């Protein structure tokens, strides 16, 4: 099949999922066209992969550049000249409405382009439900040829926040477990935990929804009980504030900010515990990536996290903001070598349930079904 993929090209989970999906489909022989405003950070060269940049001109009349219209025109162009069979848009805003517009323009020329919309999280739980977006999101979800959500929790939220009548199918996020290292790298451990401390890691885009201050709070309690170090990977609006909190308190030496990394899993694989303290999280791809490295997870019990991190198996869950409970959970996993090993194995086993080999055919079947409606 010739498949167009639209996503945010940044470090965010939706962009990572879209990119890895495209790469895996290309590997299976499909022809993939990425259509985004920048080259997706995880995109690698492949003979079946093409990248089309959406360039918005800087006309002085526009205070706000009409990105969605330029994207629509690019979608029409690529659909026609690359002969797309199907378009897959990740994150509803503004990709689903741009896809619908492109579909209408092509229809006027007698061409039919089905499109699949994948909902990822804040497009539904935060941004999308805002009245300034809601009618457009509802409409473009209704008009998509198929809509998927990355967790059961996100599917429920979609029906709660939108007056939607159509079916939403859950296709969870995935990892290619075999591509992850399951053994710590001695060189990295020597660098980050030179005295044999326990290594805790957090990866995010440092937005308020991630509550990174709780990772730091949890870590400080943990570090009072066992020698540990904390690695914070990623960057975003909250980073400066969190760094300031760390600098103004004791124990700052044990916390290291590593910034944005293209392959954070290379560091994660050498850590002992992953922490995710989000307020809301439709899935928690970073937690799944940690689990694919055999790293257990302490997380909040919000949104789709309990579908990914199984309490007592791959890690432990606690309420949002309950820093004491998180620290107690971290301690119970890390202070006992037997328990730690059991959680490591549980994490890897749970990650295998989300393996690419299981999830990829579900997307392929979905594409086939929407393409079949065109030919019918
Ligand atoms: O919705 C967002 O916050 C952005 C999005 C992204 O692009 O990073 O994250 C969401 O999608 C990821 C991939 O499906 C999920 O793993 C994240 O849990 C989800 N984030 C939230 O729900 C806060």
Count of the domains: 2
Q: Specify the oligomeric state.
A: single chain
CATH class of the largest domain: Alpha Beta
Bound ligands, named by name, code or SMILES:
ligand GMT
Provide mean pLDDT, rounded.
95
CATH 4th-level superfamily of the largest domain: Glycogen Phosphorylase B
Instruction: Tell how many strands the DSSP assignment holds.
Output: 13
Largest sheet: 7 strands, parallel
Calculate Rg over CA atoms: 21 Å
Which runs of at least 5 residues are low in confidence (pLDDT < 50)? none
Name the CATH architecture of the largest domain: 3-Layer(aba) Sandwich
β-strand percent reads: 15-25%
Spatial sequence of strands, sheet with the most strands: 3-2-1-4-5-6-7
Give the helix proportion (percent range).
Answer: 40-55%
Structural class: alpha/beta
């Amino acid at each position: 099949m010739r498949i167009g993929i639209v996503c945010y090209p940044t470090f965010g989970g939706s962009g990572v999922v879209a990119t890895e999906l495209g790469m895996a489909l290309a590997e299976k022989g499909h022809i993939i066209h990425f259509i985004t405003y920048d080259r997706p950070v995880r995109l690698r060269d492949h003979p079946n992969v093409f990248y089309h940049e959406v360039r918005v001109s800087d006309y002085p009349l526009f205070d706000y550049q009409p990105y969605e219209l330029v994207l629509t025109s690019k979608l029409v162009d690529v659909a026609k000249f690359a002969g797309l069979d199907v378009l897959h848009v990740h994150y509803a805003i503004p990709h689903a409405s741009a896809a619908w517009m492109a579909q209408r323009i092509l229809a006027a020329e007698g061409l039919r382009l089905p499109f699949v919309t994948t909902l990822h999280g804040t497009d539904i739980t935060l941004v999308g439900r805002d009245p300034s977006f809601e009618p457009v999101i509802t409409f473009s979800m209704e008009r998509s040829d198929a809509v998927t959500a990355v967790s059961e929790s996100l599917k429920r939220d979609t029906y709660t926040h939108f007056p939607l009548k159509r079916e939403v199918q859950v296709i969870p996020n995935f990892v290619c477990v075999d591509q992850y290292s399951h053994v710590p790298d001695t060189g990295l451990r020597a660098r980050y935990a030179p005295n044999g401390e326990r290594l805790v890691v957090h990866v995010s885009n440092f937005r308020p929804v991630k509550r990174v201050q709780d990772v730091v709070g949890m870590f400080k309690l943990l570090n009072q009980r066992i020698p540990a170090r904390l690695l914070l990977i990623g960057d975003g609006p909250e980073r400066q504030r969190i760094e300031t909190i760390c600098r103004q308190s004791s124990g700052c030496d044990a916390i290291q900010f590593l910034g944005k990394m293209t392959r954070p899993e290379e560091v994660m694989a050498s850590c002992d515990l992953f922490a995710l303290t989000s307020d809301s999280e439709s899935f928690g791809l970073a937690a799944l990536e940690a689990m694919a490295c055999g790293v257990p997870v302490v997380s909040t019990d919000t949104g789709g996290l309990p579908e990914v991190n199984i309490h007592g198996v791959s890690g432990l869950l606690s309420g949002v903001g309950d820093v004491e409970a998180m620290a107690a959970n971290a301690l119970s996993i890390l202070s006992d070598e037997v328990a730690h090993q059991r959680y490591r194995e549980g994490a890897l086993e749970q990650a295998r349930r989300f393996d690419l080999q299981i999830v990829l055919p579900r997307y392929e079947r979905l594409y086939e079904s929407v393409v079949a409606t065109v030919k019918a």
